[in-house]
Specification:
The structure is a single chain. The chain is an alpha+beta fold. The protein has a four-stranded antiparallel β-sheet with strand order 1-2-3-4, with helices on one face. A four-stranded antiparallel β-sheet has the order 5-6-7-8, with no helix packed on it. The radius of gyration is 21 Å and the shape is globular.
Length: 191
Amino acid sequence: SALEEKLKAMQSLSSNTKLSSIKLQRVEKISIQLKKNTHFQRHGPGVAKCVHVSDRFTAIGTSKGLILIFGIPADDLQQVLGSAISDRNTTAIRAMTLLPGGNLLVCGYASGELALWDTSKGVILKRVQDVHTAPIIRMKYIPSLSEANSKGGTSQVISIDEKGVAYSFKVSKNKLWSSYFPNQSDQSCGD
């Protein structure tokens, strides 16, 4: 039958193809810290909402708008960016992307706010609050557009919110500005 032929073909393919496997390994120190955070819901740093990994560190955005920086390979907590006490109106970080050079981290918040952080100094360089009107759900560095702008020292990032609106951002050390992407009237991405 046709089903038997398909099964034979699949078996033949699997026997002739070297399949790779996935090995999962728990990241113990980060897991311990994140589990601790769940026990301090009112006064703690919040629970993990997003993650970005570079060759130097792992950045975890929390429900209280903080960024936990863990070193690599030791996975020790090195730094906490932001303050849950002084910044009570900060919302959860929903998306992050690290720019080339490894020191500038762009974060998107549930409030629609964007922020540019300098991870080497532990300071926020710029906040943009009047662009997205919905929670930001995705953010990505765009290498091809950044290479075209490299002479000007800028990188490009795209951010997308829950309403399906996307913005393209040019980012430099002390500047974060936006342009609507694509450059047309208010359009949302359809399903």
